[in-house]
Specification:
Blueprint lengths: L1 H32 L4 H8 L3 H30 L3 H27 L2
Helix pairs in contact: 1-3, 3-4
């Protein structure tokens, strides 16, 4: 039953990530073609609740999605099961979340 739940959670996060990836790419293309500097980009994102929510939700979805995928790869390649697999999965998810959250906070709240 856990496998089915993780499978569904990974698919749900993929559905959430799809428009976020497209939005991120659109913003990046706009910034590059518009010739915006890093300072100009930060000037537009700092203090913005909208950008915080956009990239914050992106970080949450990616952390969950990637950790589940990594769990499957670790299980298939290394044959790990049980508590060690759980520990590695949670460690990956928390590490990805912490790194992503740090970046979001730096770009939107600092």
């Amino acid at each position: 039953m856990l496998t089915v739940r993780l499978y569904m959670l990974q698919r749900i996060t993929a559905v959430l990530m799809a428009p976020l990836v497209l939005g991120h790419l659109a913003v990046m293309i706009y910034a590059v073609q518009g010739g915006l500097s890093a300072a100009e980009i930060l000037g537009r994102t700092q203090g913005s609740v909208a950008w915080f929510l956009f990239y914050g939700s992106f970080v949450v979805a990616v952390s969950i999605h990637a950790a589940i995928g990594l769990r499957v790869v670790i299980h298939e390649v290394l044959g790990l099961k049980g508590m060690l697999l759980e520990l590695l999965t949670w460690t990956a998810a928390l590490a990805l979340f912490a790194l992503g959250a740090r970046a979001v906070i730096a770009v939107t709240l600092s």
